[in-house]
Amino acid sequence: MRIVFAGTPQPAVPSLLALVDAGHEVPLVITRPDAPIGRRRVLTPSPVAAAGLELGLAVHRTARLDEEALTAVREAQPDLGVIVAYGGLVREPLLSTPRHGWINLHFSVLPRWRGAAPVQHAIIAGDPEVGADVFQLTHGLDEGDIFGEIRFPRPADATAGDLLATLAESGAELLAAVVGEIADGTARPRPQQGEPTYAPKLSIEDGRVDWEQPREQVVSRIFGVTPEPGAFATADGSRLKILAAGPASADSPRLRPGLAASHAKQVIVGTATHPIALQRVQPAGKPAMDAGDWWRGTRLSELQFDTGDAGEPSPGASGATA
User: Fold this and answer.
1) What is d(CA 160, CA 162) in angstroms, rounded to the nearest whole number?
2) What is the pTM of this model?
3) CATH H-level superfamily of 204-304
4) How far, in Å, CA of 184 to CA of 243, rounded?
5) CATH classification for the domain delimited by 2-184, as one of 3.40.50.170, 3.30.565.10, 3.40.50.10490, 3.40.50.2300
6) Which tens digits make up the pLDDT trace of 46-97?
7) pLDDT for 140-161, tens place per residue?
8) Cis peptide leading into 93, omega within 30 of 0?
9) Does the CA dihedral 123-84-103-66 come out positive or negative?
């Protein structure tokens, strides 16, 4: 099949490679424009652009699937359009330009978590099961019929980055299988069933930890926003990025929500139930470091992080509770 592929971030790269490895012809790759990366803001091609160029494919960079993109797709004369995390909407007449339309690899079990951030929302919500679907792209948001699906129990210790990497690989295999079925005429799509839920793009503020929630929800929030947009807490107007954390040891004392202290070589923070342990953090204006090194640098016996009251710095701490 002649396939136009649209994608941008690293999780889309395995799908592009899988289609090429399966012997399909990819006359055109569409991706987002080069973006400034790092502290020096070096203009850098997207991971999909880099992979496409390495494969010797034609790469069209665009922030919108506009008239120019439509012309490029028409000139490619594709049998099928494939989109994986491109970061833009496909509308008519582009939607119906390929002979078989467009299919989308989406990293959730639809209709749960339609939208831009399905993996993050699944982890934040504590979903016991995760997966990926390949579906027919339509006018509605992730509403098309499903060609294929994978699902498995969510690993309890997986961050959004970890889970997305896993789904990118297994989803690429699923995508290649579905494209093969479309090519030989054996594909049998089915309608989505169930009540939809939605996964809008997360903002920086979505990474703020609410220490007044139970530990399971606090950990799920941290895992769900790692690495992007990133978990953080504030104390006395200063922000601390939480790069890695997990449940504290079973013998850790109960602390009031947001109270941080040292216990048995762990930096623990209280929640509405049991405490969590900070493992790796990044103070404002400093590099990432082990949580123990950060804590020793504060020279504090305890620290009160802001809670969800009003965004104001919390008063000084007064110790652990039973």
Assistant:
1) 5
2) 0.91
3) Formyl transferase, C-terminal domain (3.10.25.10)
4) 46
5) 3.40.50.170
6) 999 999 999 999 999 999 999 999 999 999 999 999 999 999 889 999 999 9
7) 999 999 999 999 999 999 999 9
8) yes
9) positive
